[in-house]
Amino acid sequence: DVKVGELEPLVRAALIEDPQSSMLSFFLAETRYAVGDADVAIDLWRESASRAPAWATPLMRAATVLLEQGR
Question: Residue 63's CB: how many other CB atoms inside 10 A?
Answer without folding.
Answer: 13
